Amino acid sequence: MFFHQLSLSRNAFFTACLLVVPISGVQAENETADGREYQDIETVVVTAATGGNPPQRGTPVALPQRQIEFLRPTSLADIFKLVPAANVRVNSRGETLVSLRGSGERQLAVFFDGAPVNVPWDNRFDLRLVPALAIGSAAVATGPTTSGFGANTAGGVVAITSRSSMDSEVLLEGGGGGLWSAQARTGFASGKLRSLIAVDHMETDGIDAPNTAYTDGAGSLITNRDRKQTNVLVRTTGEGDTSKVGISVLYSNASYGIAPEQGPRVDPASARYWRFPDTEHLLVFGNYQTALSDTVALQGNAWHQSFDQRINSFEDVTYSAIEDIQQDGNNAYGARIQLGFEGEQQQLSLTATSGWASHKQQEFEPQEIIRSTVDFSQRSASFGADYSLQINPSTSFSLGASYDVLDPGKNRGPGQRRKI
Fold it and tell me: Do 140 and 101 meet the contact criterion of CB atoms below 8 Å apart?
């Protein structure tokens, strides 16, 4: 049906190889100049289920499940080794981010089975949230893409689809710096219901960097780079003759430190000495797909996201005395509905997306018992249409338009501090 397979212009992965060898004389079909026989290699097109993600445009890079399995990623960040011009880095809050072709990561949107992973407050994401064994396939579009993904996608879109196979797997790893990790995945089916459970847990004492200025002096580990994290995904899907529905829960909990700011231009008195003792991320989402006819399909997504974290800022590199504390709380709700029409040579999709998000940030200094509060909320809506026409086998035409609405419901800055 329309929603079970993506065409080449969307998320397909296409590989073709042509070898031309100058020869003389007449030779039999499927025979080389020296008389050896060979077999023609047919063009192979690999397609994947959408998993709730809207169709893409832009400059797509498709990563099918087989290619990701060969890579053996330990986190979602590893798959970007296969994406040209992708830059993965860790920011000052310990989040693993990616930018495409030099664009800012805040203009890049990451979706997991159609649900956005970005936190609306600053539109950032963390590639460590998804259990690696739960990744089925991925599609990466650099540059502007379709309006089906909503606003804030000028830097590109990363659409992750969860694994659909029912096999089980366990991976254990260890390394320097006290690193160890355990990953597990299993799936089972009952009638028309299919379920997937994936869990991973990792712990490390830090990163080995002997004989450098970034260690604490007591060993070879970079100061304050320990980490402990657990990720869990539970997904259940049901499929009928012309429809499919799925519901998922993605949960992550982490505790870690950030290496202190160092360098010739950094004043130790004003450097950041941060630890994140409790970071919790929860994403609950569902998706629905149905074929209204042979050429018309309807797709819907709904999600709730919560993200809470605590930041302890210390006075110096000894991390013995807390200077101040920041507590952040984020909540977001959203829904998307998309109607798609597909003919032999043309496609049309109409999309409407709506969301609400809030952010509450509290800062306090334990010694003075003084607190400041940042309170923010917003409502957003996006409406879009995308049309494409295959003029001939080598030429296509695409046209898209969107209208985005942003309504800040509450925007209260730090303001005056008040005692509690």
Answer: no
DSSP codes joined into one string, 343-380? -SSEEEEEEEEEEEEEEEEEEEETTTTEEEEEEEEEEE
Q: What is the pLDDT of residues 118-170, one digit of tens each?
A: 998 888 888 899 999 999 999 888 766 667 777 778 788 889 999 988 889 99
What's the whole-model pTM score? 0.79
For the CA atoms of 123, 12, 381, 102, the dihedral, rounded to the nearest 10 degrees, stands at: 30
Residue span of the structural domain in which 113 resides: 13-419
In a domain, 371, yes or no: yes
Closest to 261 measured CA to CA, from 211, 221, 213: 213
Q: Is 411 helix (H, G, I), strand (E, B) or coil?
A: strand
List, for residues 262-307, the tens digit of each pLDDT value.
777 777 777 889 999 999 999 999 999 999 999 999 999 999 999 9
**Structure token pair of residue 330:** 């984020």
Residue 2 lies in a domain: no
**Contact of 319 with 273, CB cutoff 8 Å:** yes
- Tokens 């993904």 -> residue: 149
Contact (Cβ atoms closer than 8 angstroms) between residue 96 and residue 105? no
